[in-house]
Design goal:
Length: 340
């Protein structure tokens, strides 16, 4: 599958800018230094995300909004808060907040005693916006957000309920080709659920992902997964960071970073997608030296991922690593429409 950078975006970035990015950005990604810079320098000790107090928001800014628009904005605020909280806690050295798939966060855990950094300020502002939005939604008797995905959002997706996405997959370094089928089983407000078949056999566990494309890792149908890596509305040049988990849940996770290197519309498997192509770099546990031995050290990983920006659907994934638990090639072959 080939992808191209949109020509207009190439001209905006400019050749000199791209050359500078090639010299500076990618080595920094590989060394992990850019993540620290992009996250912002925090004076003194890093805050836990549970140490952040809300800044009051203005409910008047949202009066006159319909319930569906309020729900969409609440979703966006919670997604941003989850991403920021994850970055804060990861830098502090331990994830205090259980952040799963979807947009719901446990706001009481974000209340603060001493905000002191860029992310702390962001969390405080997001908490204030959340409370203002909830206040307006309550005044307008909106009730609880619906569990099902709104009809307008469903219509904007490149796939529909019941569609079957058929992939060619080659696990490991020289793994045998096999067919992976992911059928759209449920479209929720903040998630898409797939039934999974591998080699013609139905898997007992579903694949559940948020609308950015991040899967639920505690039950991932025996597939390689990633946490907090993908963001909504991926932009050209955007830097990403998250965790990479092997298909075998007993294998420790690794860290993965990436950069969006191409975006644009593509027709793949007969469907139109809004594609973002991401170069990946990272470190994962080294392969065990012998049977029954624990891995020692780490192994380098690189690869490429392509996803649809509207739905988070995976279109292509190539991971190269000496640890075969993190080596994989997968690409979308076709989309079979739901049976009428």
């Amino acid at each position: 599958m080939s992808y191209r950078v949109v020509q207009q975006q190439q001209r905006v970035v400019g050749r000199s800018g791209r050359a500078a990015a090639g010299r500076c950005l990618l080595p920094a990604l590989r060394s992990g230094l850019l993540l620290t810079v992009a996250a912002g320098l925090v004076a003194g000790c890093a805050s836990w995300s549970g140490d952040v107090a809300p800044l009051p928001g203005d409910p008047a800014a949202y009066r006159g909004w319909g319930c569906e628009r309020l729900f969409d904005e609440l979703d966006a605020v919670q997604q941003q808060a989850a991403d920021v909280a994850y970055a804060v806690d990861a830098r502090a050295g331990n994830n205090m907040i259980a952040l799963g798939v979807g947009i719901t966060v446990f706001w009481p855990a974000l209340l603060a005693m001493r905000p002191d950094g860029l992310e702390a300020q962001q969390l405080a502002e997001l908490k204030g916006r959340y409370e203002a939005l909830r206040s307006v939604a309550t005044q307008q008797s909106c009730g609880a957000p619906p569990a099902a995905m709104a009809a307008a959002r469903q219509a904007s997706l490149p796939v529909a309920l019941g569609d079957r996405l058929v992939y060619d997959e080659r696990p490991g370094v020289n793994g045998a080709q096999q067919t992976l089928v992911m059928q759209v089983a449920a479209l929720r407000r903040d998630q898409i659920e797939f039934r999974v078949e591998r080699g013609g056999r139905a898997q007992p566990v579903a694949w559940v992902q948020d609308l950015a494309g991040n899967p639920q890792l505690d039950a991932r149908a025996g597939l390689i997964g990633w946490r907090r890596l993908l963001k909504p509305e991926l932009a050209l040049g955007q830097v990403l960071s998250g965790e990479l988990a092997a298909a075998d849940e007993a294998v420790p996770s690794g860290r993965v970073r990436g950069q969006v290197v191409a975006t644009g519309p593509q027709t793949i498997a007969g469907r139109s997608f809004d594609v973002a192509v991401i170069e990946l770099f990272g470190e994962v546990p080294a392969p065990p030296q012998g049977v029954g031995e624990a891995p020692a050290g780490s192994a380098r990983l690189d690869g490429v991922m392509a996803v649809d920006r509207r739905s988070g659907l995976l279109l292509r994934l190539e991971l190269r690593c000496a640890n075969t638990d993190f080596a994989l090639r997968r690409r979308l072959l076709r989309v079979e429409p739901a049976a009428l």
